[in-house]
Design brief:
Order of helices and strands: HHHEE
Organism: Vibrio zhanjiangensis
Pfam family, one: DUF4250
Protein name: DUF4250 domain-containing protein
Strand content: 5-15%
InterPro entries: DUF4250
Number of domains: 1
Number of strands: 2
Radius of gyration: 10 Å
Structural class: mainly alpha
Distance between the termini: 21 Å
Shape: globular
């Protein structure tokens, strides 16, 4: 499953995928959104609407 379709994904699946990719493949959120060519603000907003925020120091959404 790819993140290009993040806007239509289930939020909890998206959260899991993003955190896994941040942990295993990317150093930070900027690198992830650049690689997948997705809108960082939209991604953050979608996860924020479910109560999750990006923690820069942890490099994950919680």
């Amino acid at each position: 499953m790819s993140l290009e379709n993040f806007e239509t994904m289930d939020t909890f699946i998206l959260l899991s995928m993003v955190n896994m990719k941040l942990r295993d493949e990317f150093g930070d959120l900027d690198s992830l959104v650049k690689f997948y060519d997705i809108d960082k603000t939209k991604l953050i907003d979608k996860l924020a609407n479910a109560g999750f925020e990006y923690l820069t120091e942890a490099k994950q959404f919680r």
